[in-house]
Design goal:
Strand content: under 5%
Radius of gyration: 28 Å
Helix content: over 70%
Number of strands: 0
Distance between the termini: 40 Å
Number of helices: 12
Structural class: mainly alpha
Largest sheet: none
Length: about 280
């Protein structure tokens, strides 16, 4: 280590500046001020513009697929007639009911199977067998069991929600680091305390991922469920439009399904940020 001369006073030593160098990484050099939402909306907007151009030039027949302008005009007409609001309200109610029953069943079964070995022996094997059965293939049985009312539609959505959510919750519980559980046991936490403070918080990320996936399957099941003698809902409007070859109404219904799915996914992502605020995660470079 270099020694300063003894004759140099302490004030001169403190005043001696240490040379510093500012280092900028490549990410800082290439960072642009363009907001992320602009990048996210670029692709959908470009696709819609291309769609409109193809329709306007005649490359895309109006009878084959209505143009975005026609679809927007049709959506306005359906809104003025009140059909759009009624269809959305009916479909959202069906998904909400099916989601409640499906989430309750998945949470109970996954908790029993994940926390207890005997529970896994009793629950997991039947769940693994049933999840391989196509849910859509159960529609004839559901009609026989529950009739053609609202019950088979709700049960179909609940089944579509239960299996993916069960798999993620079960996997989240079983993938908890065993050292965390041992530490909690060493600190004197009982069984309930370990589950509440260690196991369930650690399994929450998997559970929320499963919930996002389950919401997607719920809307998919709704499309098939509303073919069961439905007299209201987005699927009913789409089936009616299919009979009259109204591609504009069909596209409006498909856009509604997509928008409702995006809203549901956005709500779950907000829930992730709230519930998992304690857990820092990689958000991309």
């Amino acid at each position: 280590r270099p020694h300063l001369p003894r004759s140099m006073p302490m004030t001169d030593q403190a005043a001696t500046a240490i040379p510093t160098t500012t280092v900028r990484n490549s990410a800082a050099k290439t960072r642009t001020p363009i907001p992320r939402w602009l990048f996210k909306t670029f692709s959908p907007v470009a696709l819609i513009v291309l769609w409109q151009v193809l329709s306007a030039t005649g490359a895309l027949d109006e009878e084959t697929l209505a143009s975005p302008a026609t679809v927007l005009s049709t959506a306005g007409e359906l809104w003025q007639e009140g059909r759009l609001q009624a269809a959305v309200a009916t479909s959202v109610q069906r998904v909400a009911l099916g989601l409640v029953f499906g989430v309750l069943a998945a949470v109970v079964l996954a908790t029993i199977s994940g926390l207890f070995r005997r529970g896994e022996d009793l629950v997991d094997a039947p769940m693994q067998m049933l999840r391989t059965v196509p849910v859509i293939g159960l529609i004839p049985l559901l009609i026989i069991w529950f009739g053609i009312g609202e019950e088979p539609k709700v049960v179909l959505i609940a089944l579509a929600v239960t299996f993916p959510l069960y798999m993620n919750i079960f996997g989240g519980i079983r993938n908890v680091d065993d050292s965390l559980v041992e530490t909690a046991r060493t600190l004197g936490l009982g069984r309930f305390g370990q589950v509440r403070h260690v196991i369930l918080p650690a399994a929450m990320p998997n559970a929320l991922v499963g919930l996002r996936y389950a919401l997607g399957t719920a809307w998919l099941a709704l499309v098939f469920g509303e073919t069961i003698n439905a007299n209201a809902g987005i699927g009913y409007e789409m089936n009616t439009a299919r009979e009259f070859f109204q591609t504009d109404v069909i596209v409006v219904c498909l856009v509604l399904y997509a928008l409702l799915g995006l809203v549901a996914d956005f709500i779950v992502r907000l829930l992730e940020r709230t519930v998992l605020a304690w857990r820092p995660a990689f958000r991309g470079a």
